[in-house]
Specification:
Length: 567
Amino acid sequence: MNTISDLETLSIINCTFQIKSQLVGNSKKLKELRIIGNPILNRAPDLNGLDNLEYLDVSGNSIDTLMSDIAFNKNLKHMYANSNNLKNIHMIYLNQIYAINLSIINNNTIHSNLSHNRIIGEVKSLSNNAELLILDLSHNFLQGHVSPFYANIKLKILDLSFNNLEHIVEQPSDRESLRPFDKNVELEMINLSNNWLDNQIEGYFDKNIKLKYLNIQNNRFVGGIPDINNNKNLIIFNVSNNSLSSSIKEISIKSLSHIDISLNSVKGELPKFTGCINLLTLNASCNGYSGVIPRFNNTELYSLDLSGNKFQATVDFDVPKLKYLDLSNNIIGNITSSFKNNPELFTLDISLNEIKGNLPDIASNNNLEYFNASNNRFSSNITSYKISPSVKVADLSVNYLTGIIQDLDNNIELTELNVSSNLLRGELPEFNANVNLEFLNLSSNHITGNIPDFSNNYKLAKLDLSYNWISGVIPSFVNNRFMTTLLLMGNRNLKYYCKNNGGLLPGVFGIGGDICDLGSVTIVSKRDCSDSIKSQCNVNIMSSAKSIYYIGTIQILAVFSCLLFMF
């Protein structure tokens, strides 16, 4: 009959009880041990005598101490202690654990995961761990310097992300000048992101020809963008949010699919990516790139972000699978592309530039949902301008657009429309077909006529018609029960008829955070509701049923109404 001493595999997963030492210690033949997800387990099991143990997983517990006897398990090759509270180590090997050069990682360990703990100290040499393949110390409190991993020539995965590391030590030998990763030719993944590393990194990764994943974002690296053209197997390259200041002329790697060089201080021309035939995403935003945006022949590219640079002009984007294009916040003066060659385009942002002339033709971009052309110098007459029926958000504000806003009967999906701060004239359309409309801003134009009742726009939450030439009666907006913002100030001769149940939008305004500004309004009614409206909105009552002070021509109309009521 088999007993506990014959066990070769023991798994205790998502159980909440203390583990007795006899349960593990008597299993001398144990090869695999998993104790996972026990929130009350604060001490690792005693592994003394488990000479056959090859695989140890004590992740997802509350362990704050790993015992030194792990070092004597010479067959241990896989060790996972991530997502614990590791921080307090016995003083007998304090210097080792704080350096992560400890007997806990023995000479034969090939997989070591100590991520998501509270380990502090520096990352020093792991010279006794020549067999190490995977080292994950991410999401800890490591600090100071990182020693090179010259002895770990078999290392494939190195993850030191989300710590407080400050510098990678460079140790040139007597015979040759070695970069920190020159000996780690088997590396396939390097993740140093989210630290405070400040090295100048040109040439650091020249010898890592098997590298597939390189992420050094959110550090303080200086110098130039590293030349990665020797890394022919690279798939993901992320150097964003550093202090890199110089670029390279070209990146030509067939396997490369994701490039992020954003949030640096790189100037000059954007590198060419002609050889990156499998490139899917490119983010070069928030740098100092200038000149003409180059032509892209990357047929698989679906996301391109060049915002926050100093580009002056563009060419056609003959990229059939492009879905996300952000050219905002540059100094582009003209745009030649019609975007007809981008049938999959989902998001198009060309805002905050200096683009003149006509708005781009997007009528045939039937997958487009977000279109932002605000803060430019467009001077189109939009009377006959067509917006793709698929568009949900359209922002054409702060331009020099002229003409009359027409009914948008084909734009049923439209939820937000902003055409404020232009030169539009004429009367407002009814917007009856735009049943999904939530935000409408037509402020600071030359619009005349009356305010529609917006009875079909029951989702309408924010309406801004301020600073126009609108007159007539303010509707009661009884169908707009989601209304939280109403701005009508800066118009002409607006009037409001008091209802039997009180003021404007009963039961809607008055909630904390709502905004209502009606400007100057005349109360035209037998019943004075000025107090009710004032409690809901910022309003200047020009005249009301109880008022004896009237201004200009408004006085006659209001007095007549009030006299009828009094007599």
